[in-house]
Amino acid sequence: MEAIPRFTEKRYYIILAFVTSLFLLWGVAMTMGDVLNKHFQNVLHISKSRSGLVQLSIFGAYGVMGIPAGLFMKRFGYKPGVLLGLFLYACGAFLFVPAADAQSFTFFRVALFILACGLATLEAVAHPFIASLGDQRTSDRRLNFAQAFNGVGGVIGPLIGSYFILRAEAGHTNDLVAVKYLYIGIGLVITLVGLSFVFVKVPKNLTDPHIVATDTMAVGDSLDPAKKLFQHKHFVFAIIAQLFNVAAQGGTWAYFINYGHEVMHLSDASAANYFAFSIFMMMVGRFVGTYLMGYIRPSKLLAIFAACNVLMCIIVSQQMGWLSFGALIMINFFFSIMFPTIFSLGLKDLGRHTQQGASFIVMGVVGGALFPPLMGLIANKNVATAYLFPIICYLVIFAFAINYNKVRKAS
């Protein structure tokens, strides 16, 4: 009887804990962007479609930084890649100070872009880094476990934003002072984390186990070394699926607070707290998904969750009070496993191309830059109707998941 593969090895515990914390840190930054989206509408008096450029700045950085981050990681390794990502993250946070002083939406977008270049670098490095810390057969579980802590960060982000930014708004202090001091604090925390990681010892011989084996091959079996990266059809499909996946995420999150305020008649601060709860549900979904993957093939579970989100979007668009708002919250539960599962499925069988492949899949995150401005054009008229738009994305993810095994075998 074949032994059940271990989640990770004891020698990797400290490294696993630190890299998992990175998932939390960029979760904070991602959801804080959605709070800023609503705050800029109120303070800088911009439309929903223009405020969607916040997401363009954040997710657009992934399209710019994805490949350079992958090349940097391939040349210098995981640890320098993490340090570069943290450096850019901190620099972007500190640039909020002059942006707030200038009260310039464009300056804020530049700061967010630099910060997001750091996030893109961390994502390009952290996913294969986590995958390398144990057996290939448990890589899907490790990625979903780490992404659960990304959900923790996602919960913390809107709670911080609600307390320090939107709560200040309610007190009629509609300025950018709270934003400035909040991001100074974030920059200092990221700097401290980077300095701490300098002293963490990372083995130089770490190899992503996707290179060594796949879940349908015995460990040690060789892969076709002559096959080029884009000849792996399941990898190309994964890039497309990831692009639409993050497009759905970006649009859903960008106008959550607007939906709470305009449809449910909540205050902005209260809507932000519900947004935090929806991210908590995403974290729950990742723990549930990690467990279910012990019994259900990851691609099949991905298809089930994508189909559920098509239904959730339809219910949200119907404006049926708390039923629709509950469906909006549950979108994040079903969204939970999508990013890490698509990422891990796309990397399988890539062999020596794994690290480069990771950077291309991270580039798929640029989808989050495209949908919010487009959804904003609809949301300017009816924010509920705008939630029909992400259905396109979930149908693409469903197609990827349901055809994954057939496409992978044909690669």
Automatic annotation (TrEMBL):
Domain of life: Bacteria
Membrane topology designation: Multi-pass membrane protein
Chain ranges of the Major facilitator superfamily (MFS) profile domain: 13-411
Gene Ontology annotations for the cellular component aspect, listed alphabetically: plasma membrane
Transferase in keyword set: no
Places the protein is found: Cell inner membrane
Classification via SUPFAM superfamilies: MFS general substrate transporter
Transmembrane segments: 12-33, 53-73, 80-100, 106-131, 143-166, 181-200, 235-256, 271-289, 301-319, 325-347, 359-378, 384-404
Stretch forming the signal peptide: none
Keywords per UniProt: Cell membrane, Membrane, Transmembrane, Transmembrane helix
GO MF, any single term: fucose:proton symporter activity
Protein name, entry field: L-fucose:H+ symporter permease
Lineage, broadest ranks: Bacteria, Pseudomonadati, Bacteroidota, Sphingobacteriia, Sphingobacteriales
Gene: fucP
